[in-house]
Design brief:
five-stranded parallel sheet, 113 residues, alpha/beta
């Protein structure tokens, strides 16, 4: 139950289709009164990223594998969700004013930047 005066934390989940990212989204599902997912990223998992973006009504997604941009863009176009590609986009978007917390759940060194 949301307390009066408590604003939702706006989240960016980098690597949302991996194990840690999916677990984080499970927590968000249980606490929709506390969190709003603003940004999701994935490297290759187009179908799961699209499904997550629609379910959580995110503001934007980034598909890091730029060759899959067209697939994601086409799938999310009817849902008014912004689609970006590449690691530069991830870095730019997490610095936005609409993000309160960033969960980095990317594999290996890809999330270090």
């Amino acid at each position: 139950m949301m307390q009066e005066g408590v604003q939702k934390r706006r989240l960016a989940i980098l690597g949302s289709t991996g194990s840690i990212g999916r677990q984080a989204l499970d927590v968000v599902r249980q606490h929709k009164d506390l969190f709003q997912v603003e940004l999701l990223t994935a490297n290759n998992s187009v179908d799961m990223l699209v499904a997550q973006a629609i379910e959580f009504d995110v503001n934007a997604v980034v598909i890091c594998n730029e060759s899959k941009y067209g697939q994601v863009k086409e799938a999310l176009d009817p849902h008014d969700i912004k689609v970006f590609a590449g690691m530069d986009s991830v870095c730019d978007l997490v610095a936005g004013d609409n993000i309160d917390m960033v969960l980095t759940a990317m594999v290996g060194f890809s999330g270090l930047r």
